[in-house]
Records
---
Amino acid sequence: MNIPFRKADGPPIQVVPPSGATAHLVTATAFAMAVLAVVAIAATLAAHRLSARWSSELARSSTITILAPPETMQQQTAAALQAAQTTPGVLLARVLSEQEQQGLLAPWLGTDLALDLLPVPNVIVMEETLDGPDTMGLRLRLAGEAPDALYDDHTRWRRPMMAVAERLRLVGYGALGLITLCVAAMVTLAARAALSANRQVVETLRLIGARDSYIASAFVQRFAWRALVGAAMGSVLAGALIALSPDVARDAAFAAQLRPSGLEWLWIGLVPLIAGAVAYISTRIAAARMLANAAET
């Protein structure tokens, strides 16, 4: 006779012996995978911020480069600046100073650079509106008034960098997917090993009327709880290390800090819950299959 256990008989988890290396292995695996998951999430969020930063900084900026003979350099620079300032869609246009040009070239040529010894072009930087300027009209004016001036909207630079940022995000998503699969596989193996090691307990429970769903719940709850605890500890450790990391990228032009900000921390808080859910589903599927196979034999 198959009689289901009543609630008064206690929770199912109490019928499983608490000892066993598999339970500790699940905790350790969840801990390690949570650390990796938090790092992957932080890297993915950083790539997203990097993509947004590059998009905002480059999409609304452009430059005009004037590389003219010395005798016409000032004249063409003034004409190009006037054309830029009077073009609809341009908020601000100015010529880079000699000090700013030296600062841009310093990483490659050093700080003791004499610009008058090199054919360094004059550069006009522009800030644009959201709709952007009339690029065709601006190019036509430059061709007529400053033939040695070249307008650059940074498209050739923006597209590769945006592609790199998007690939970084895809790598982060892929890493999270692999981590989830590893957790599911490890918990499944641990659950099957625990069921095999406690075969006599399972047979005894069946003899006294326990249903397979009750027996499976005992293992499911134990492994899901172990995974939740291990993932919580790993998430706290990884989150603390990331939070205490030096903020070296705040003043960098094209760098993204790894540390999440604001509501982004909620994604890290979801790691233990997801790990527990994955362990719960994996253990339930593994236990149901093993118990069904055992009942047929």
---
Amino acid sequence: MRQLPHINRLCSSPIRPIPRQGPCSKTPMPEASGSWSSRKRGRMPWRIATSILNSSQGASGSTKFAAPEASANCMSRPPAEERLKRPLLPHRLHKTPCPQAPMRRLRRQRNRTVRPPGRPPSLRLLRNRLPIMNTNEPRSFTGGMAMTRTIVSHTALRRALSATIAAFFCFAIALNASAIEAPGAITKKSGGKIPGIIKWQPASKVYLVTDPKTAVQVRVPLSEVAKIEVKDPPELEPAAKLVSGGQPALAIPNLEKILKDYEMLGPDIKAARWLAEAYMKQNDPKKAVAMCDRIISVNPAAVSGDLAFLYWEALLADNQMARLRKAVSDAIAQGNRAVAAKALIMRGNIEKKQGNLKEALVDGYLRVVVLFQDVKEVQPEALYEAAKCFEALGQLSNVEKMRKKLLAEYPDSPYSSQLKSGA
């Protein structure tokens, strides 16, 4: 039978394998004549080649091809320069088993400490590396220790992130939950009045008013509220009597509870007024200032009337003159006549505390005595403070004028009683 040289070339020339790292690329495979071992090495076995060619030539002619006599030439390995010229087959056809592959993968995993920037290792990769971190294993490289630090740092980061997320959700839930739901009514700036069960939502600054009969809820934003009416808790009146009776320490716990439970519902402002007075009677103006600051941060318009005056006194006692001057100037410019008169008296107190007695008289007390005679509730204090300033300046005639006016027009005032007693 005739032998064709290109068939011998086909059978004796293995496909060039993909270059591989490690010693396994130089390990020779056993020379087996079976088709499976030949395929694993990347060669086409002689039986398959001849069967393909015989089937293609059977219909046209009687030429038959037989295996070459020298089987050693068919299984021999050609030179390297000739193998490099041949095309590659898909990776799966020329992949050869290597007994050293597991050890090579182990070394690659242990030495792989550099990863792309900004791309943390996945949890699956960390779990696969954990069994390799054997502290009893002697090692002469730093990759394992660096990998251990990487695993520990990412574990700590995940725990810290989980704790932060949990704390955020707890804070959000606490922020959305009002301390109490109280029956009452809300009067809107547009003129409508909405009765029902009122609940304050701090996160969105919205009141939820629920109709007890139909369970229908109405959302009223804080900016649309003109007035809120909620019945005072029963603990408020006894606590106020304790403060006015000279026992502020007994009243402070109940007042603090009312302030927390009835936030933005109305009774909290009344409790804050008595709580500020209790702090001032205990010579603790810092707590009074901090409490008023919390209220102002939520609802600046709530600090008005008696609470605003107590807030100013706390700022004066705490020597926060810059904040006090600004608050007084805003009250004089924006407040009504009663608030402006009270603010002018506080301006006189600021100048008096800093030793500026003439400025206290001109910019404060005398301005109230002359320009705000219609505001009767502030006249006794203005006359009394003016008399004290004239006395410190040695102007006894003016002192007598202030005394006579105070005793004649406001005999029942507490300031008249102090003047009679010589205080």
